[in-house]
């Protein structure tokens, strides 16, 4: 993966680092890969890494740190994971205990950082291909659903696959399969399309996370594995201690979306 | 495109050439590309070539001869288009006038041969990917339908797109889009999936060509552009003279299916 022309991404990180940016990162540093964040103590990191290996569609790893090391040079040379995300969530035994903008007081020398690809990248590719992304059109969050599809468990990490949904006309759905198949590092091809009940979704108008979007005449819902899956799985595992990003407040990396494409 | 290990394909052609083979070619010379055939007088060949250029999904050309030349060395070195297909159909003003096994008495020095990719190749790829092909399971012909999608006309050649249909579960349909997208020389990705009415198909149980197949619980019909389209378009244009293969009696080439794949 190339890293170049990374000024915009670095600028976002420096704003977060200085405390000037504490809000969501959608539309910031366009073209750059943004990542979901999971930070776990070393004694859980092995199982979580295995969980990601077994569930690459919801958990495509774009970077994993050394234990205790707050740097992640594979994603950006000067990245400091303790300060470069605008807002974090700190969890103890499954309970949210803080939403800091800086991890300095929480950092431990046994923490391992997992950066997980995010759908912002493939939505970029869909828009570039002329495909509609309804929740962007409607200015809301993508609708997400817990499904009846179970992830492959690893240690304490287990639970249902969470999917995101974008409505498309059939010919657009075929094009979207092509476009997103080339991006396995950010969830890849859809996991389902058509009848929501087949994957255990009873009411498409009531997402479990995010906002509902309108499905127009002739469109079918198309479902992708979602980066909320690992968060949901971690919440279910209730580790003594862990850190995630606050929803929408992503890690902005120096990787380019276009460099993730297989072709 | 490589040509090697072509003994099996050549054997089929030599059997047809000698008159020993006059039946369908399905399952003969597995792995080799079989092609639809359209032979037209030179004064129509330019428009038909343009029609194929404008409609690459139903009319993917794998070879076009020089006018009057019965050889097609791009498909096989010793191929003689007048004798190497098991059975032909000869048309005059849109009427079927003969079904010979040899074109010797009909050949003219202004005839241009068009060889058009056929779904046998992508069905091979689907089976290799572990995907079901229902009409093969059921031992019948693939169901085909005239649609409300119009082809891009060229000269006298115009008319509706004809599609073939294979029922798949949604996850299989996604995989089938991936597999067949890599094979644009043999119709490529599906053109539609799901609701047949959206492309003007009123009754999925009543195909316009071929045989109906069962669609099982949870499956959706998946539609590909079909090589019957050019035949239907030629029938509609009613040229003074033309020749096609008899249905199912294809031209067996020395090209390998696997060499058609983009990846």
Automatic annotation (TrEMBL), chains A, B:
Pfam families: D-Glu_cyclase. SUPFAM superfamilies: PSTPO5379-like. The keyword Transcription does not apply. Its EC number is 4.2.1.-. Keywords: Lyase. GO terms for molecular function: lyase activity. InterPro entries: D-Glu_cyclase, Putative_hydro-lyase, UPF0317. Belongs to the D-glutamate cyclase family. This is Putative hydro-lyase SAMN05216548_101611. It comes from Faunimonas pinastri.
């Amino acid at each position: 993966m190339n890293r170049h022309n990374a000024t915009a991404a670095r600028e976002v990180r420096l704003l977060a680092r200085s405390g000037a940016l504490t809000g969501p990162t959608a539309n910031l540093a366009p073209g750059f890969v943004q990542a979901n964040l999971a930070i776990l103590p070393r004694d859980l990191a092995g199982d979580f890494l295995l969980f990601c290996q077994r569930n690459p569609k919801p958990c495509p790893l774009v970077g994993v740190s050394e234990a205790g090391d707050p740097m992640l040079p594979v994603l950006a040379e000067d990245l400091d994971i303790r300060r470069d995300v605008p807002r974090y969530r700190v969890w103890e035994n499954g309970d949210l205990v803080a939403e800091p903008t800086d991890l300095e007081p929480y950092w431990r020398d046994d923490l391992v950082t997992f950066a997980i690809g995010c759908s912002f990248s493939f939505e970029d590719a869909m828009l570039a291909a002329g495909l509609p992304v309804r929740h962007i059109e409607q200015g809301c969050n993508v609708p997400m659903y817990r499904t009846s599809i179970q992830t492959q468990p690893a240690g304490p990490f287990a639970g249902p696959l969470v999917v995101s949904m974008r409505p498309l006309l059939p010919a657009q759905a075929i094009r979207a399969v092509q476009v997103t198949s080339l991006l396995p590092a950010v969830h890849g091809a859809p996991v389902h399309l058509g009848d929501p009940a087949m994957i255990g979704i009873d009411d498409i108008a009531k997402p479990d996370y995010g906002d509902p979007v309108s499905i127009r005449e002739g469109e079918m819902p198309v479902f992708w594995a979602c980066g909320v899956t690992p968060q949901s799985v971690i919440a279910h595992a209730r580790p003594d201690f862990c850190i995630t990003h606050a929803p929408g407040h992503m890690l902005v990396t120096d990787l380019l979306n276009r460099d993730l494409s297989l072709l």
